Amino acid sequence: MARPLPLLLLALGLAAAAKSPYQQVLQHSRLRGRQHGPNVCAVQKLIGTNRKYFTNCKQWYQRKICGKSTVISYECCPGYEKVPGEKGCPAALPLSNIYETLGVVGSATTQLYSDRSNLRPEIEGPGSFTIFAPSNEAWASLSAETLDSLVSNVNIELLNALRYHMVDKRVLTDDLKHGATLNSMYQNLPIQIHHYPNGIVTVNCARLLKADHHATNGVVHVIDKVIATTTNTIQQVIETEDSLETLRTAVAASDLSSLLESEGQYTLLAPTNEAFEKIPRETLNRILGDPEALRDLLNHHILKSAMCAEAIIAGLTMETLEGTTLDVGCSGEELTLNGKPIIANKDVLATNGVVHFVNELLIPDSAKTVFELAQESEVSKSTDLFRQAGLSSHLTGSERVTLLAPVNNVFKDGLPVIDSNMRNLLLNHILKDQLSSKYLYHGQKLQTLGDKELRVFVYRNNLCIENACIAAHDKRGRFGTLFSVDKMLTPPTGSVMDVLKADHRFSTLVAAIQSAGLTENLNRPGTFTVFAPTNEAFRAMPQGELNKLMGNAKELANILKFHVADEILVSGAVNALVRLKSMQGDKLEVSMKNNIIHINKEPVAESDIMATNGVIYAVNSVLQPQASRPQERGDEPADPALEIFKQASALSKVSQRNPRLAPVYSRILARMKENSGGF
């Protein structure tokens, strides 16, 4: 049955759109060059080198490759040439055999060696071939010894070398699939193909410079290196390299040999003997003696896909067999790992991938102690504190723990003095068991090495353990986990009432709570946030109003309940405005301004005083519920009196002279000014 025409056209359109990454980049270069005429491609050239690249959109705007500046030039796109007197490159290259085409596309040296090695008759004659032809510069870059060994024995070595660059069928870039292998015309030995998302295509890690040059008997691709046969697996590379002796021992101990001998396409970032020697002996012995840590270490050096150096023209995030990621990049001619130029020897090809030698050991978090994790992060000052307190043994051994480590900024004024109280406090920063923050839940109880119980609070914008909120992603080590927190933890020491009674600043408040009959409420288990007026706050009240308040238990209880919310809100949960319902019924507005917590726009004197049943904020003012605020009090003169003052100025003057009415008049005048903007 015939397919409907619209569906057929759609299928054809999708097929046409599914271009290979190389063709997409070539198309972009063609678009950037079209103002210079037909079939002109924009090319980026690294300043100070002969390296050229067709440009993708990102490179075009950044004007950089491997962090180095480029200049834009305009050249004929592959397969076209200039015509004198005409704009651009309007003419297709003459279609000739492969031998003739080599001379036209910039591979005259390959053409010369084809002649010398008696390959010429084959590539001039009938057939269908693909040749990956080294550029003239590629041949010139060979060492004199290598080149002499090839050229001096042209009928054998040179011919074999050239035939290894050939495939006995026509293969275009769209056919060069990532991870594929092609059987060469030299003993059917495989050629490895990698076609990367950035448009780079490599053949045994040599980059295609000019691709898809058609010939009558095949196709020519110009590459930037002379490629050599490879028969060794990655494991065999390790076994034959003297500089990888320590790695060889480690691989054998971890039972990874079978993986590195198996089929696949891996990248091994192979630490040299020098890399292992840079690691402190104690650390190295610990990892080598721990099979799980050793396996994680080695898997952290193995990428899940083959990554040739020529394919890296900007930063990439690559996944390792350990499940972690590494930032692979470049800086000029150098490859970098996590921003550091530590690759000593690159693109050692194996049958199952590629090996880059690295001169620094990449130790993953999963092979580190908690102490090592902390030393290398933004909590390094905390490690000094725990070491001074004699607690290092909990952070360097095989004890399962989680460390709550304050970030360095907490100690900007210096480290606290270590005494027994501080040591006990630090013990309460070490949790029993190795935890992960993604499994913590609101209300969870955690046990510390100091035998304290800490609570977990989950907020919309933060995850906190007591008053300390997690400031960075977890770092999970071999036996312990590191939580970076934004402040020193203060474990609760008693109920809200216990804490208030123990602090002389709140003696008036304690008396008020007792007078209002609220003591039992604040002693019972719960989740309270208390905005506690200090003695200073009560002293700031007019004496008469204070006496009246203290003498009215019902009104006092109402005011005090307005200072209490029935949920715990620590300061780390406040980044804008948070509204809490007070136990009195009205809303409390908690906000952050200039790094200071405000309650109903009043600044808080001290935050996060932790209690077993809540959290306390010290405030230097007594908060007034909406109905109790002076501007809304119901004890003002009735409306008729207000009308009198609005309508009779003469009576107003009399009222001002009357000692009994003068205070009332002043209050009404103030209200009228607020409501009407003044008389």
Structure description:
The chain is an alpha+beta fold and 679 residues long. It has five domains: 69 residues, no CATH class; 131 residues, FAS1 domain; 130 residues, Roll (FAS1 domain); 118 residues, FAS1 domain, CATH 2.30.180.10; 124 residues, FAS1 domain (Roll), CATH 2.30.180.10. Helices cover 33% and strands 25% of the residues. α4 runs antiparallel to α5. The radius of gyration is 39 Å and the shape is elongated. Keywords: Cell adhesion, Disulfide bond, Extracellular matrix, Gamma-carboxyglutamic acid, Phosphoprotein, Repeat, Secreted, Signal. It holds the Pfam family Fasciclin. One of its GO terms (biological process) is extracellular matrix organization.
| Order of strands across the main sheet | 8-7-13-12-11-10-9
The rough form would be described as: elongated
- Strand proportion, as a percent range, falls in 15-25%
Quote the average pLDDT: 89
Percentage of residues in helical conformation: 25-40%
Q: Which second-level CATH architecture of the largest domain applies?
A: Roll
Rounded to an integer in angstroms, the radius of gyration calculated over CA atoms is 39 Å
Poorly predicted sequence stretches spanning 5 or more consecutive residues: 7-16, 630-656, 675-679
Organism: Anthoscopus minutus
Main location: secreted
Subunit structure: Binds to type I, II, and IV collagens.
Function: Plays a role in cell adhesion. May play a role in cell-collagen interactions.
Write a concise keyword list for the protein shown above:
single chain; 679 residues; alpha+beta; FAS1 domain; 5 domains; seven-stranded mixed sheet; secreted; cell adhesion molecule binding; gamma-carboxyglutamic acid; FAS1_domain
